[in-house]
Amino acid sequence: MPTSQLKIQLFGPPTIYLNGVEIQQALPIKASATLYYLAATRRTHHRSHLAGLLWAAMPEARARNNLSIVRNRWKQAGILPLMHLTKREIGFATPPETDLQRFEAIALRPSAYTLADIEGVIQHYRGLFLDGFILDDPENTELFTEWLYPQREHWRQQALKLFSYLVEQQLAQKRSKAALITARKIISIEPAQETAHRTAIRILMSSGQREAARNQYEQCVSILETQLGLLPSPETVALHKQITSATSFSIPETGLLAKKHAPFQAPLIPTHFVGRQQTIEALVATLSSRSTTATALVGMGGIGKSTLAAAVAHAVRDRFPDGVLWAHAYQQDLASILTDWAKLFDVDLQHLNSLQNRAAAFLELISTKQVLLVLDNVVAADDVRIVLPKSPNVQLLITTRNTDVAYALGAELFQVAVLANGIPLLEKLIGTKRIRAEIKAATELTELLAQLPLALEIVGRRLQSRARLKIQLFVNQLKQQQSRLEPLTLSNWAVRSSFQISWDALNDELKHVFCALSVFQGQPFQAAAVAATTNTDLDSAELKLDDLAAMSLVSEKDGLHYQQHALLAEFAKEQAKAFEIWDSLRNRFIAFYTLAIEKEQVEVVREEWHSFHLAIRHAYDLHAYHMLVTLVQKLIPIYFAQGLYSQARESISIAVEAAESLVDSAAHAVLLYHWGEACVEQTDYAEAKNKLQMCLQLMEANLDRQIRSDVQLLLGRIAQEEGNTKLAEQLLFQCKAEKKLLADEFGIAKVDEHLARWAFQIGDFKSSQRFAENAIARFSGVNSVWKVWAMLRLVSLRIYQRDYQGASQLSIQALKEANLTDNYPVKAEALYLALVCAVRMKASGAATQYANRCRTLFQQMGAKKYQGFIHHEMSVLSANLGNHLEAIQYAAQAEAIFRSLDATYELVTVLVQQARSKQKTRDFASARACLTEAKLLGIATQHTQLEEIEQLLTA
Q1: What mean pLDDT do residues 18-46 have?
Q2: How far apart, in whole angstroms, are the C-alpha atoms of residue 523 and residue 589?
Q3: In this structure, which long-range contacts are made by residues 24-33, counting pairs with CB atoms below 8 Å and at least 24 apart in sequence?
Q4: pLDDT in the model for residue 702
Q5: Residue 258 clears pLDDT 70, i.e. is over it
Q6: Rounded to the nearest 5 degrees, what angle is found at the Cα of 594, between the Cα atoms of 634 and 566?
Q7: Cα 102 to Cα 6, 38, 696, distances in angstroms
């Protein structure tokens, strides 16, 4: 039985022939589309990839069912025996004959084929790739369309190049009629290509067809004007003059085209290339200015240097009319590169045995030309120094990982950084719709990959081929991997392989330091920490870091810190484990940061809290629980002084696990107390009460009255913040009695400060002042932080008494004292009360400055309630200045925050403020709704504004 033959034409309107019979009309459009895609890509594909390609918006089960329908239609058409189908993959068992395959082979190397071969393949070029083929459900076929359009443009460009080569050869053989047909073929593909129009005009004139030549000229002019808004070039205009004046016209001996097609070897720019526009523009300007003969793109492996170089080469192509030459310096020796380049200019250098002679001959060959040389991935300066251009018209562009290479060559250096945002690159690969549907997961994915282009492309390709796979699921899988480098491999692409090249270039000492950087896990660090971790002196560590920075394996930041890319840190960790030094590195790392705490190096903690957190994590992984608990206990005061409450909660949670493992109930209880304290500072009262109750339960077996009274104080503060003034009163006075029994003068003063807040809240301003003054007296000479807190209670009182001038003066005094304490929370509240004073005095400039400064601190501390207070104060200021619409907007922001926190007492205040502004804008219905809700909530919380609310309701 004869074997069935399948033939697919992809150029022009696509056509499918089975045993010579056209069958695409009998196939559903997506059954045909699948065949076209398989034929063009020439490989098998995963079923999920094909399902996503053609039914992206459908549920997976339905999309896969559609593939089964396609299979049945292939069976009905007699194609199924020619297909390769498994449960996972679909492809051709025997590749079909396609016009694309033969065309591609000739287009890539036309000089290797006869003119008859080229003319034969061109006869079968019926038009654009899949010309006119449209899938009519764009929502489902977005991925197919994103594949089709770049392919169509790529093959159009290849056709233009091949036809341009052919017309030159036809003219050289004086085959004018054939050249005219080819020139018109070029015009049909690219109507605005003047060179092809001029070729056609010259051929027509040389054969005496003056009228046809004039029509060709007018067609050219019309197309340029309508499509590009341009006038014809002087060369084309000159031809027109010859048409109208010359009595005869002959084809020049050199042919009709200006010169032989210049070589252009730069790779295609990927369709997903994004960003870098400013860098490209700067590089184009540098290469065009001819101010230097060498330019270098420097950056770590996988950062996109080669792609950027390709984009630049395309951008400057017209500025180097004699050619853009490209070679991979890491994969090919320079002698071979020079030989291949010279052949492009019809010169053979193989007879020159020495590299020096070959380089000299090549440089002489191009000395009068305008050429761009691109050497990709240069490892050493000596590998390319010999081909440094002698003429400014010849430019050398290199990519390298080593800044020393650039400096040694005297090259203009351009540092290539990671992408600022990897989302646009992912959008290009998997579609905007898919990204928007999971923007949070996509953002997390780019962060996990640390915005490295190579990693993003590999992952994007994986997601592209698995159209049903949720981005969040991939993110979860990536997090669960022991190393993030594991999934970053696709065919011959691998992030790990890219890093291996840099690793192989290091000597043993640099390898040791590179491994040590893994303990920082991609976070910034100082040289002193590296010195301690590698057990070397500071000078030696700095020299080694400078060497690694020159090789793009670490970057310098802010003149003080260094940073290793997060994925490089993963690679370094793998090497450290392979050398069995991972644990010893971590132990020295922990010891360094523990010592920093013992020396009370607050600045180190402030600038490198992430490293302290890493030390805690490392200690946990090493089961060094005693060291872990000690480290966290020493960090807690600094966390609180810096307002790092989120970090405190995270570190304490780990230390609690360690204390449980040690069965150390005393340490466990203290840690739970501080955990609750951090929760209070972030207005997470439910969590705070939970931790404090757990603390009290542990204290049953260990009656530490000091901790018990401190827990009571915190519970009293929570009751006060939640508006439960009765419970607050009970707990605070019980705590004060306990502190007196303990003779804890400092503790008594703290309670008095809290009582001052409580008394103010219930409207007992005389008692509030008394408690605050008592606290100040007790704090005098004891603890300036708590003295400032008590001073701020007096500021609040003066604000209530409308002594804004006095309150402002006292707030400024409190702020000065707060600045001496290096305590962020007290600074933040001092700034906030200064803001309140400025608002009441209608000092909008000062108020805005205070608001911005304290907002930053409260955001850093995660204190959401105070962020609500700031919005409320800005609402009051806007209302005082008569801008009631702006006042309503600020009040709405404050309201949203207070509602999210169930902060009922504060919500009443902001609802009253909102009602006042809405009355001013004559929105009486909304104003009344605000006041009605405020009244109900005010009664429940015994709010001090109840009387004012009643007055506003009856007005």
Answers
A1: 89
A2: 14
A3: 26/76, 26/77, 27/73, 27/74, 27/77, 28/69, 28/70, 28/73, 29/135, 29/136, 30/54, 30/66, 30/70, 30/135, 31/70, 31/73, 31/74, 33/133, 33/135, 33/141, 33/144
A4: 62
A5: no
A6: 110
A7: 15, 16, 82
SS3 state at 907: helix
What pLDDT score was predicted for residue 259?
46
DSSP state of 131: T
Q: Are 189 and 163 in contact (CB under 8 A)?
A: yes
Q: Which long-range contacts (CB under 8 A, 24 or more apart) does 804-808 make?
A: 804/837, 804/840, 804/841, 805/841, 807/833, 807/836, 807/837, 807/840, 808/834, 808/837, 808/838, 808/841
Return the pLDDT at 255: 40
Query: Mean of the pLDDT values across residues 124-144?
Result: 79
Average pLDDT score, the chain: 86
Alpha-carbon span 177 to 203, nearest angstrom: 8
* 688 Ramachandran zone, left/alpha/beta (phi>0; psi -120 to 50): alpha
The sheet carrying 412-415 orders its strands as 324-328, 371-378, 394-400, 294-298, 412-415
- Determine which of 226-240, 455-469, 816-830, 845-859 has the lowest per-residue pLDDT on average: 226-240
Determine the Cα–Cα distance for residues 831 and 856; give it in Å rounded to an integer: 11
Residue burial 290-329, b: 16+ Cβ < 10 Å; e: rest: eebbbbbbbbbbbbbbbbbbbbbbbbbeeebebbbbbbeb
Count CB neighbours of 102 within 10 A: 14
Mean pLDDT, residues 402-410 taken together: 90
- Cα dihedral across residues 514, 519, 520, 525: positive or negative: negative
- Structure confidence at residue 111 (pLDDT): 80
State how far the Cα of 124 lies from the Cα of 141, in Å rounded to an integer: 29
Tokens 């992809």: give the residue: 10
Residue written as tokens 């065949």? 35
Per-residue pLDDT tens digits for 225-243: 776 566 787 788 888 888 8
Contact 794, 810 (CB under 8 A): yes
pLDDT digits 0-9 by tens, 744-791: 888 888 899 889 888 888 888 899 899 988 888 887 765 568 788 888
* Tokens 């060369």, residue located: 235
| H-run or E-run covering 210 | helix 210-223
Single-letter amino acid code for the residue at 607: E
Comparing CA positions, the residue from 909, 901, 955, 951 lying closest to residue 933 is 909
Q: What is the pTM of this model?
A: 0.63
Length of the chain: 955
Indicate the helix (H) or strand (E) that contains 480: helix 471-480
Q: Is 559 exposed, middle or buried (0-12, 13-18, 19+ CB in 10 A)?
A: exposed
* CA separation, residue 842 to residues 380, 835, 836, 854 (Å): 66, 10, 10, 18
Pairing of strands 371-378, 324-328: parallel
Query: Given pLDDT bands bounded at 50, 70 and 90, which one contains residue 862?
Result: confident
Instruction: Give pLDDT, residue 297.
Output: 95
Neighbours of 724 (CB within 10 A): 17
Are 295 and 416 within 8 A, CB to CB? no
Strands ordered across the beta sheet of 45-46: 45-46, 89-92, 83-85
Judge contact between 611 and 631, C-beta under 8 A. Answer: no
pLDDT score at 492 = 62
